[in-house]
Amino acid sequence: MDRIAEKIHGHDSSSSSSDSDDDKFDAVKTKIFRLFGREKPVHRVLGCGKPADVLLWRNKKISSGILSGTTIVWVLFELLEYHLVALLCHISIFSLGILFLWSNASTFINKSPPEIAEIVLPEKCVLEVASALRIEINRALAVLRDIASGRDVKKFLTVS
Known about the structure:
The chain crosses the membrane at residues 62-77, 83-102. It is found in: Endoplasmic reticulum membrane. By secondary structure, the chain is mainly alpha-helical. 69% of the residues lie in helices and 0% in strands.
């Protein structure tokens, strides 16, 4: 019984070589310095990439930028009760104004106007999406009509 307890605790008295004792000491030492007895470092658990660096504050500029950005968004939405649609509209109006000023001022400062990429969507793709959307809207309206007319009494009572 003592032998089993010694093996569990890592104090095997049968091996007397100094190399094995050093290995055991290193293993015990690494377990002491790791929080909650983990075997892998936190950086490896988080994926060893940029997200792990950001979460562990290894790149302080990016981490502080993300923290300040999320704080600004939180202040806008929670404290000032700003809405997402209004924010998107204001951002698009601001960017449109900047592009307008840049394109008009480019003739005075001898710079090239901004190059805005032209997006070309194939007609077939747009028609397929519109057709699928039309079918789903018609299905939803048919269900609503059945509920409102009283044909499906169970759903009518559930909705009421």
